[in-house]
Automatic annotation (TrEMBL):
Transferase among keywords: yes
Pfam families: Aminotran_1_2 (PF00155)
Keywords: Aminotransferase, Pyridoxal phosphate, Transferase
Aminotransferase class I/classII large domain sequence ranges: 26-377
Molecular function terms from GO: transaminase activity
NCBIfam families the UniProt entry points to: PRK07777.1
InterPro entries the UniProt entry points to: Aminotransferase_I/II_large, Kynurenine-oxoglutarate_AT, PyrdxlP-dep_Trfase, PyrdxlP-dep_Trfase_major, PyrdxlP-dep_Trfase_small
Keyword Transit peptide: no
Organism, as annotated: Kitasatospora misakiensis
CC cofactor: pyridoxal 5'-phosphate
Protein name: Pyridoxal phosphate-dependent aminotransferase
Amino acid sequence: LNRRLDGHGTTIFAEMSALATATGSINLGQGFPDTDGPEEVREAAVRALRDGRGNQYPPGPGVPELRTAIAEHQQRFYGLTYDPDTEILVTAGATEAIAAALLALLEPGDEVIAFEPFYDSYAACIAMAGATRVPLTLRAPSFRPDLDELRALITPRTRLLLINTPHNPTGLVLDPTELAAIADLAIEHDLLVVTDEVYEHLVFDGAHHPIAALPGMRERTVSISSAGKTFSFTGWKVGWVTGAPELVTAVRTAKQYLTYVSAGPFQYAVAEALRLPDSYFDGFRADLLHKRDLLTDGLAAAGFRVFRPAGTYFITTDITPLGEKDGIEFCRSLPERCGVVAIPNAVFYDNADAGQSLVRFTFCKRDDVLGEAVSRLQQL
Ligand code: PMP
Ligand code: GLN
């Protein structure tokens, strides 16, 4: 392994899901739903496969049907207008979008400011690009960014702000004031913004606001989302990038040499998914809101300190009230102690102390599974 990938061994998600399988535990670690997305969307994928749409290399930027549907979705929910031909790129999940964006836009030695705790692929991809990550630590209990601290982190080497709202793992949803302040800094210092909005449809308190919609931001922002989260098809790996033509062209250039194109038939199905009526998006959010409250209350009753998330399908907790200090040790022993798997937030930090006693649980599981997990955790 080269030095760039030093310290980026096996991802925590693979490690913890393997532990869940090996011990037969309930997996509230890795974020994937235990119920697949809408039947009609699955049927659309089957139809595409059967009718021979997308079984051979699709166009590099993605099939036109999907790019058009992505443009319509951005217009419908946020009033953002993107040209499907020049301003939209389909990727192999948001993961590839993040990798291609960072590889395309960063020079070796550039600094990237990202909220810490950060989703693990950010750190690895910044490293692969030869750039340096500069963490802005989000602190309990609110996990809101300190914007003066953000300003102070900007140096002449800063090239890019990498933001994530709704934020995995804290559930923070950036509010319009915070987004405006971040946008002002980006404009003042001529920075690019890469924004990971894969949980855009999972906001329970407040609303999702894309930073690309703010004045002066469209031309400097690469926005990323994914069908995995919104439609509960994490295995399909269909994601996308939207942005100004020069930025999307740069990301596309990198994508060509990572995967060349993304799998075809699922793209046609996701095009149909994006056009589902509002009732789908509302129902999805209502269902997850109910699960958020179920698990928040259950974890609190089990003795955790719970930070109720405004968005995503994750809950961050503090294990200190249980007499525990170290989340990594806690998560390694939890399957044996009570048959539940969770993720230690410490792995998402450079300043590991800040996340030492924090542990993340996902609630994108059936109610009976969440109920059983809570009753097991109450035995601790
Ligand atoms: N960004 C964040 C914040 C995520 O939580 C995830 C997946 N869980 C991804 C990106 C990756 O998305 P995909 O599965 O579409 O690659
Ligand atoms: N994003 C999901 C999570 O945070 C997992 C994705 C992955 O396994 N890479 O749990």
